[in-house]
């Protein structure tokens, strides 16, 4: 559906461009022909004027010669008469009356001949004078209102005016299309800026991708570094654990020795106390205490005996004592005893530190496993991202191609809609100019359909008015054509009497009376031109009657008659109210109808 609509719009645009080019070519060709006709007419008029001037000058010279000859003849006749009278008087005495009478007869005969000759020359002079007056009038303005060449000239002028009007309208359309081209260039610049911005964003994204690749490489390096540090920490922890175990074993051994020594000292003190109590005679309560002490000591006696037997190797104990002192880090026995007393608190601290280190080790192991999982996930995500990027590129490439096609199609539709809007605006301006309303609303994108509908309604209304006016005027035109038929016959007879120069001038131009009517672009102007020709025929007949009454027409009279002809043409145009570009409006009407159907 869209392709069919696009093809239809493309064909419509091509048809519109072709018709516009043909109309412009026709207008240029007509203007060129009119210019050629005008130049040829001007050159022929100049040549006729020059030949008429030469002919008038020759007639003037011939008239002067005839006048000179007439004066010479008059002078010769007077001389001959005086001479003959003198001879007759002188010879009257010698020859007599007969000779005198003969001379008188001869002189009378000569006088009569000269008088007849003078009368003939005078008649010829009057004829030449009349002809000179006619030529002088023709030289002032060779085109008279009732002559066909004047009608031809006026028709050519009308054609030239219409061609100039069409040329001006073509110039207006050309300016409109130039503005459209300017706007399209601005929109193209805007699209270029948008495309450049998109390209910049793509470059920024490529740069971000490169930075992410670098960050990934840094992350892999940091991962390897953390693995190495973790291995080092594990080795260090194992070493510390072994050292702690050795220290604990040594301290336990020292504690056992210390317990053995303390039991020996308590036994010695008890023995001394027993001897003193026996010597001083303590109360009867002592035996009970002794019994309790013996009860306490009795289970320890075997252990003490065993310990006593274990003291056989003094060297071993001394070496152990020295090792204990070195382990404690002090040579003072009191300090060593205090440290041994505080050994339980130290043991608790060590156990607490052991639990803390174990907890820390577990947290580090958990964080290590989490980091390994994150790194593994990142690697998997990077691979998946590569796959996703490949898929996105596969989707993105046809999307870009589709975007370019849509941009081209949008530009084509934008150009077409801009041309439609400009054509509709020009059509609205022309219709408002015909209606006399120079103030018109501007055609926008929202009001294009309303403007097309309004122009269609106005054009249909105007066509109905024109058809009614033509129907009303057709009866008058038929009556006027019947009246002008006889005038055309008389005019045709008068045209046959035109000299060879004028007939050659008439055959140079283009016959616009019939050839232009047969052209389809001037069908709407046929009735208007026939009305103008009928009016010009009536004015021409009135001017012919005035010319018959007068001997010659003055320049002011010719101007007044031409003004009457122009006023009659204007009245006819105002009465009919037909736009000279009705063909153009009809073409635009058909185009607007087709465009409205396509838009709907």
From TrEMBL:
One of its GO terms (cellular component) is ciliary rootlet. InterPro entries: ODAD1_CC, ODAD3. Residues 1-24 are annotated as: Disordered. Residues 151-431 form the ODAD1 central coiled coil region domain. Keywords: Coiled coil. GO terms for biological process: cilium movement; outer dynein arm assembly. Residues 52-138, 220-250 form a coiled coil. Residues 10-24 have a biased composition (Basic and acidic residues). PANTHER family: COILED-COIL DOMAIN-CONTAINING PROTEIN 151, OUTER DYNEIN ARM-DOCKING COMPLEX SUBUNIT 3. This is ODAD1 central coiled coil region domain-containing protein. The lineage of its organism: Eukaryota, Sar, Stramenopiles, Oomycota, Peronosporomycetes.
């Amino acid at each position: 559906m869209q392709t069919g609509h696009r093809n239809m719009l493309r064909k419509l645009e091509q048809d519109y461009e072709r018709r516009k080019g043909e109309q412009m070519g026709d207008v240029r060709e007509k203007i060129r022909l009119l210019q050629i006709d005008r130049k040829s007419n001007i050159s022929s008029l100049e040549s006729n004027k020059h030949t008429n001037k030469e002919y008038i000058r020759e007639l003037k010279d011939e008239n002067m010669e005839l006048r000179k000859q007439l004066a010479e003849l008059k002078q010769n006749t007077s001389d001959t008469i005086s001479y003959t009278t003198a001879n007759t008087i002188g010879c009257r005495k010698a020859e007599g009356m007969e000779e005198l009478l003969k001379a008188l007869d001869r002189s009378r005969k000569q006088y009569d001949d000269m008088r007849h000759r003078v009368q003939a020359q005078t008649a010829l002079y009057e004829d030449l004078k009349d002809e000179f007056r006619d030529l002088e009038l023709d030289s002032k303005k060779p085109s008279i209102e009732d002559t066909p060449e004047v009608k031809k000239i006026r028709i050519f002028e009308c054609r030239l005016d219409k061609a100039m009007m069409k040329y001006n309208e073509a110039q207006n359309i050309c300016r409109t299309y130039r503005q459209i081209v300017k706007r399209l260039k601005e929109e193209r610049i805007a699209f270029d800026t948008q495309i450049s911005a998109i390209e910049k964003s793509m470059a920024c994204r490529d740069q971000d991708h490169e930075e992410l690749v670098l960050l990934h490489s840094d992350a892999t390096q940091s991962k390897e570094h953390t693995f190495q540090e973790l291995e080092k920490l594990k080795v260090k922890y194992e070493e510390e654990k072994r050292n702690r175990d050795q220290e604990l074993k040594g301290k336990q051994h020292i504690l056992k020795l210390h317990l053995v020594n303390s039991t020996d000292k308590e036994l010695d003190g008890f023995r001394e106390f027993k001897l003193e109590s026996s010597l001083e005679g303590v109360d009867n309560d002592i035996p009970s205490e002794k019994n309790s002490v013996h009860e306490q000591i009795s289970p320890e006696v075997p252990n003490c005996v065993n310990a006593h037997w274990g003291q056989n190797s003094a060297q071993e104990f001394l070496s152990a004592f020295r090792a204990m002192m070195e382990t404690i880090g002090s040579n003072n026995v009191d300090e060593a005893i205090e440290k041994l007393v505080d050994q339980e608190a130290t043991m608790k601290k060590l156990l607490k530190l052991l639990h803390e280190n174990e907890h820390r080790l577990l947290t580090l192991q958990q964080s290590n496993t989490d980091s390994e999982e994150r790194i593994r996930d990142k690697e998997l995500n990077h691979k998946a991202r590569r796959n996703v990027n490949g898929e996105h590129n596969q989707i993105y490439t046809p999307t870009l191609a589709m975007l370019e096609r849509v941009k081209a199609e949008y530009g084509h539709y934008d150009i077409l809609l801009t041309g439609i809007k400009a054509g509709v605006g020009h059509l609205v301006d022309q219709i408002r100019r015909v209606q006399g309303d120079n103030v018109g609303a501007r055609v926008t994108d929202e009001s294009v359909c309303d403007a097309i509908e309004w122009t269609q309604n106005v054009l249909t209304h105007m066509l109905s008015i024109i058809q009614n006016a033509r129907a009303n005027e057709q009866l008058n035109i038929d009556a006027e054509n019947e009246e002008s038929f006889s005038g055309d016959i008389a005019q045709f007879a008068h045209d046959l009497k035109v000299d060879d120069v004028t007939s050659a001038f008439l055959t140079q131009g283009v016959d616009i009376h019939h050839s232009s009517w047969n052209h389809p672009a001037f069908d709407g102007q046929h009735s208007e031109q026939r009305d103008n020709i009928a009016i010009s025929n009536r004015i021409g007949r009135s001017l012919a009657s005035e010319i018959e009454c007068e001997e010659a027409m003055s320049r002011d009279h010719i101007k007044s008659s031409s003004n009457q002809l122009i006023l009659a043409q204007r009245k006819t145009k105002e009465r009919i109210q037909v736009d000279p570009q009705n063909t153009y409006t009809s073409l635009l009407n058909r185009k607007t109808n087709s465009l409205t159907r396509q838009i709907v």
